[in-house]
């Protein structure tokens, strides 16, 4: 039973934390005024996409914690911190160039997590693949916005 309480805590941290960060850094007039590339998705896409991804991130974090995979758990915490910092750099500080550097580090941490878990906990690695794909796309979007503005 303790394992499922921990799972609920991991999900509360990722989904709840992501929701709080999103609410604190909601795009405003500055973002609306930016030139965006043709592949910029409509705003309504981000909430459902991140909601699903935060569930997958939470489950993967719980799995590596539950299995005692310390190195993978460290990388998991690093990626979560980087994930939560990016919106503050991009939206709140209005620094897309610095946010671009940071999101590249986030993508590297995601890749590191997949590499650490691939042999011992393939499920956790697979749970991170949609997240990695989304962050790769977000990196391209961040780079395009930086370039255009």
Automatic annotation (TrEMBL):
Gene3D superfamilies per the UniProt record, alphabetical: TspO/MBR protein
Keywords from the named record: Membrane, Transmembrane, Transmembrane helix
Keyword Secreted among record annotations: no
Domain of life: Bacteria
Gene Ontology CC terms, in alphabetical order: membrane
Subcellular location: Membrane
Positions of transmembrane segments: 47-65, 72-92, 98-118, 125-148
Record-linked InterPro entries: TspO/MBR-related_sf (IPR038330), TspO_MBR (IPR004307)
CDD domains: TSPO_MBR
Membrane topology: Multi-pass membrane protein
Biological process per Gene Ontology, one example term: tetrapyrrole metabolic process
Family assignment from sequence similarity: Belongs to the TspO/BZRP family.
Identification of the protein by name: Tryptophan rich sensory protein
Organism of this sequence: Aurantimonas manganoxydans (strain ATCC BAA-1229 / DSM 21871 / SI85-9A1)
